[in-house]
Amino acid sequence: MLITWLTLATVGLHGVVVGGSAVPSYTWDVMVFVQGWPPSQCVFLEDEKIKCAIPDKVSSWVAHGLWPTQKGSQEPIKCNKTWKLDVNELKTLRPKLDYRWASLRVDFGVERENENLWRHEWMKHGTCATTLSALKNPFHYFNATLSLMDSFNLLEMLTEEGIKPDQKKTYDYEDIRAAVQKHTGVTPCLVCIKDKEVEKTYLREVEIWLDKDFQPVNCLDNDLPAPGTHAPHPLIFHSELHVTYGALQALHKSAYNTSHCPSTGIFYTPVHSKPAS
């Protein structure tokens, strides 16, 4: 799949100017575009003792983030700590953001939790993306991510390949990976979460890597362990939902423990139903 809807230009090494001051440019290689499956995200959040609810309007995958990343590291992050997100800048995007980039947290109310997530994603990752003119400010960053949700529609991709949300049926790791690869032309990374109470593993996130022209590239340069031992690179997978904001404190776990996907027996449950038990 080739993304041609953006005309991109890389800003020079001295960065871009915001409010009269230069924003530093940090080196990064790829953008990690992350989508989460709501029921599985709730399994994760509830395991962290965080209340979770899926809004009625949410019926598909939700954006988790667009992370400029230097391969082999967690950098760059928080490239301009003074550039705080004003959610009013996203007013025209808000109707879509509320259900396509939903936090799913409810402790402080849905609206506030969504805004907290967007502020977090902008501060940690969006400020580092501004070295591309297509992502030069919050509006462009969030709008581009929403466009990526359309371009990489995981629900449609998986459904077309026979991988449909089901309360009891499970899927193989390789079948899920191959389904996404068939539509994108590249190897994705899959992230799973195990519910220890019921001893079941759920497909939680799919990560598609993009170059600076928004063209998909192989996750981890196609250097993936064999199915059954797959664990995303701990320095690449940020486990963003572990990062708290406001008064919330979530327990931090290793990337391996939260991301491990088995070769078989992966649940992919319907959005508006409880996980299989």
Describe the model.
The protein is of the alpha+beta class and 277 residues long. It contains seven helices and nine strands, in the order βββαβααααβαβββαβ. The chain has helices at residues 38-47, 94-100, 110-129, 138-151, 154-160, 173-184, 255-259, and strands at 16-18, 21-23, 30-36, 62-69, 170-171, 189-195, 200-210, 216-217, 266-267. Strands 3, 4, 5, 6, 7, 8 and 9 form a seven-stranded mixed β-sheet that branches. The chain has a two-stranded antiparallel ribbon with strand order 1-2. A hairpin with a 4-residue loop joins strand 6 and strand 7 (200-210). It is globular, with a radius of gyration of 18 Å. Mean pLDDT is 82; it is low at 2-25 and 221-258.
Major beta sheet summary:
7 strands, mixed
The helix/strand order is EEEHEHHHHEHEEEHE
Number of DSSP E strands: 9
Q: Overall mean pLDDT score? A: 82
Instruction: Report the oligomer.
Output: single chain
Relative helix content: 25-40%
Short description:
The protein is of the alpha+beta class. Helix content is 27%, strand content 16%.
Structural features:
two-stranded antiparallel sheet; 7 helices; 277 residues; alpha+beta; single chain
Question: Mind sketching the topology for me?
Answer:
Layout: E1 16-18, E2 21-23, E3 30-36, H1 38-47, E4 62-69, H2 94-100, H3 110-129, H4 138-151, H5 154-160, E5 170-171, H6 173-184, E6 189-195, E7 200-210, E8 216-217, H7 255-259, E9 266-267
Parallel strand pairs: 7-9
Antiparallel strand pairs: 1-2, 3-4, 3-7, 5-9, 6-7, 7-8
Helix pairs in contact: 5-6
